[in-house]
Write a structure and sequence with these properties.
Layout lengths: L1 H17 L6 E7 L2 H15 L5 E7 L4 H10 L6 E2 L9 H18 L4 E5 L3 H12 L4 E4 L14 H11 L2 E4 L2 H9 L7 E3 L3 H12 L15 E5 L8 H16 L4 E5 L4 H11 L5 E4 L4 H10 L2 E4 L3 H9 L3 E3 L7 H6 L2 E3 L4 H13 L1 H8 L10 H12 L13
Parallel strand pairs: 1-2, 1-4, 2-3, 4-5, 5-6, 6-7, 8-9, 8-11, 9-10, 11-12, 12-13
Helix pairs in contact: 2-3, 2-8, 2-16, 4-5, 5-6, 8-11, 9-10, 9-14
Length: 402
């Protein structure tokens, strides 16, 4: 009852903010990392496509400076407000405080009708918290993902849970995510099953490729593993075990190469370079721009990652993914057979990769499994849901998967 009453209170607030007029609604998007930017970009584009109805306001925390900026360039997004919170080896507390203070200043200046946040980064929770402090409606894109372990992934699991408690509109990518929200007493009419916007972005970028030589891509012929790791719970010894397993695999398969996109965080880089540097078939490269990275994912034999977004993207490209984590908030891929959880144990990683490199039937089953995460229409559904929420449409958008 309390959750439903809160939702009705929010409806009254948003109607007052919108002024019940036909003027364009100011919709603020808040994000700070590359994955957030990739997944938010199609939504910003969809809002821009309706200039008579929406006035998008883009705010970036720049939690990841360089990696964020290249996505903004790719999708031709110029932030209206850049908080520039990035500092070397910043702590979670420092990110939170600087982002919250910056957003508070922006929201005092700009009173949007709705604040949109995406995913589970620190910018996500802080963006929702700042909007709540200003009594503004909040929309959460990619809502309802859960592992039920507050330290895996850390701090993302709690970021998304706390964002859920603040949000008024919940854009769940799948029916599984919707059901998680329903179990937490989120009103059914506040949830929209949209698919994941990353598939919208991926299709757009893949259609623009291939990328020219100046994109900095290495030779993509032959078999190679593509690796990307950055999760805080894998810092230290887990990261070292992953790297030792990769060396074991290169020693076992003479035709195999490794392309490691090394995250810019010094904590990650010290371990990766300490173990992997010098191997003749291991290329340690700076994180490529998103477009070239899509091309790498397309051509890779296997992807090993602790990333969340790659679990959604790679299956759409037909590339099997081994997840270097103990849990995943995206079990749909595991159930569909597009991804497999392998953790960070050195021996298990070697066994799982070796199996897929030597068993053609097992590899083919993963490569041809159906991607459960989207159809390229998630951003359209989100915009239609916003129109419905503000009374600009009388029709609730159809759900992904129906």
């Amino acid at each position: 009852m309390r959750a439903r009453r809160h939702h009705h209170d929010t409806l009254a607030r948003k109607q007052a903010l919108a002024g019940m007029t036909d003027a364009p609604l100011a919709i603020m998007t808040v994000f700070g990392t590359r994955p957030e930017a990739v997944k938010m970009a199609p939504v910003i584009q969809a809002l821009r496509a309706r200039p008579g109805e929406f006035r998008p306001i883009t705010v970036v925390t720049a939690q990841h400076r360089e990696m964020l900026d290249q996505v903004l360039r790719l999708f031709h997004i110029m932030p209206d407000h850049d908080l520039n919170v990035m500092q070397p080896e910043q702590s979670l507390a420092e990110i939170t405080v600087r982002a919250l203070e910056g957003l508070d200043r922006v929201l005092r200046e700009v009173r949007p009708a709705l604040v949109l946040v995406q995913g589970d980064a620190s910018s996500t929770f802080v963006g929702a918290l700042a909007a709540f402090y200003h009594s503004l409606p909040i929309g959460h894109i990619e809502a309802g993902l859960r592992t039920s372990n507050k330290y895996h992934p850390f701090p993302e699991e709690m970021n998304r849970r706390m964002t859920t408690s603040l949000a008024d509109l919940h854009f769940a990518p799948t029916a599984w995510a919707r059901d998680n929200l329903l179990r937490e007493a989120i009103p059914r009419d506040a949830i929209y099953v949209t698919g994941n916007t990353v598939i919208d972005a991926l299709r757009q970028v893949a259609a623009a490729g291939p990328f020219p030589p100046e994109a900095g891509l290495p030779d993509l012929d032959g078999r190679f593993l593509l690796v990307e790791t950055h999760r805080r719970e894998n810092w230290g010894d887990p990261q070292r075990q992953i790297c030792l397993a990769l060396r074991d695999l290169l020693d076992r398969f003479a035709d195999l190469r490794l392309i490691f996109s090394v995250h810019r965080n010094p904590v990650v880089r010290r371990v990766v370079y300490g173990v992997m540097e010098g191997h003749p078939r291991a290329l340690l490269m700076e994180p490529p721009d998103y477009g070239p990275f899509v091309q790498l994912m397309t051509r890779a034999t296997l992807i090993l990652t602790d990333s969340g977004g790659i679990q959604e993207e790679a299956p759409a490209l037909g590339t099997p993914v081994l997840v270097l984590r103990q849990t995943t908030e995206r079990p749909e891929g595991v159930a569909a057979g597009t991804v497999r959880l392998v953790g960070t144990d050195r021996e298990r990683i070697v066994v799982e990769v070796s199996h897929l490199l030597t068993d053609q039937d097992a590899y083919r089953r993963m490569a041809t499994a159906v991607n459960p995460y989207g159809d390229g229409q998630a951003s359209r559904r989100i915009v239609e849901a916003i129109r419905y929420f503000f009374g600009r449409s009388s029709t609730r958008p159809e759900e992904f998967g129906t």
